[in-house]
Amino acid sequence: MSALPVLAGHLETLVAQDALGSALAARLPALRWYAGKARAIERVTVRLLAALPVRERTAHLTIASVRYRDGGRDDYLLPLLTVPAGQPGAIPEATLLAVLHTSTGDAALIDAVGDPAFAVALLNLIEGEGRLAGPGGTLVAGRDAPLPDGDRTPHPLGAEQSNSSIRYGDRLVLKLYRRLVPGINPDVEVGRFLTARRFPATPAVRGWLEFRPEAGEPLSLAVLHDLVPNEGDGWTVTLALLDRVLRQRTGTSAPAMPPRLLFPPPPLPPEVETALGESLPFIRRLGVVTAELHRTLASAAEDPRFAPEPPSPAAWRAFGTALMDRWGRLKGLLAGSTLPPSARPDAEAVLAVGDRIAERVAAAPAPPLLIRCHGDFHLGQVLVRAGEPVIIDFEGEPARPIAERRAKRSPLVDVAGMLRSFDYAAAVAGAGNPWAEAWRLWASVVYLAAYLDRARGALFLPASPQETAALLDLFLLEKALYEVEYELNSRPDWVVIPLAGLRRLLAG
Question: Between β-strands 96-102 and 105-111, what pairing exists: parallel, antiparallel or unpaired?
């Protein structure tokens, strides 16, 4: 603990002091969920939301407001707790924030999510639908259904990047949202809606936690839902299935395929069904479940938060303008950035035909109806339970404003996201392998055919296959443009994947 920031005083007196903010500024970049690692911190201030009794101690649920030198700001949920330095038991290194020299001895200041007693106190607060008054508002815990009996031993989970989760026994999971923005998180709102509608392919929401300020919008802090026993997420399972296909087909010729997705999707040739069959039942079921999700989300005409509605002409024009603005930014990045050598041919090809994006924007019809969607749909947002897809995480893309994440969109946005995820899976499993390319195309055909068959007659789909194809094509372009920009900023070595996809989308 000697390398940690050192503070003098008790936590109760340090909260909201500059010294604590300075200590956190030094420590935050090392934390897994902190999203500002590439930005220079100017200042961190700490604001207390409420104090939660944790046995003989007190946890302080705070917001750490990070101001960056570029002028931006992020707010993070940071529960703080002190642990006596001599307390038996190892303190997880990832939770350590600072050392406190106090009048009663030295203590470690930790991120309380890693403390079992804190985890139990949070669960009890939700089960009892408790309220905790704070300096500027009230912490409110809600419960939509009784919590199951049985083992509730807490186990912090470390797989997430942007949030923190705690598993209780084998029945419940509490997700704490780290990066906070005013407004109800769509993960809570959509999750509670689907639970009330008894949609079977998503974990049931049991409770939630939010802070209601004296003025302004509430802040969603956490959601409690059922734990889903599973064999892994869709990304892991799909890569394993695809790897087996590629190993079994080594040395054989891949089936012929057109250069891009066919529409309407044709029946699978028998040789494709034989060659890729093991990997396709899950993809087919995923298409069906996606359509059932959209039908459920479109089923509440009486609820203004979820009632389907047509897009206004102004909103549809704004969508096209935003897409072209993204392309304008991306052109500059592709022309001026240092790309991996493997990505340069695709970048040059995209720049050469990029003007076709404007043509696609002009040709695409407006969606007939907009509905609430998943918003960030890909294979990693699906768990596989006994071969069946279970859809999770309705938070949307965390970088987008919460109003945008709660906005209604065409459900084909979700379809496009999943199709792009197949593209990533094929590239990761076997870049350049003809069988991986064949799988990418035919998995997309299978998924899309299953989706359209189950969604047939839904008013949120265009009336004709041609209009559906044009609209889906536009959303695929939108997603690929987003991916290229994201990878350039976050994982440059991966940019070749969406660039190659964008090149295919613009071909012909």
Answer: antiparallel
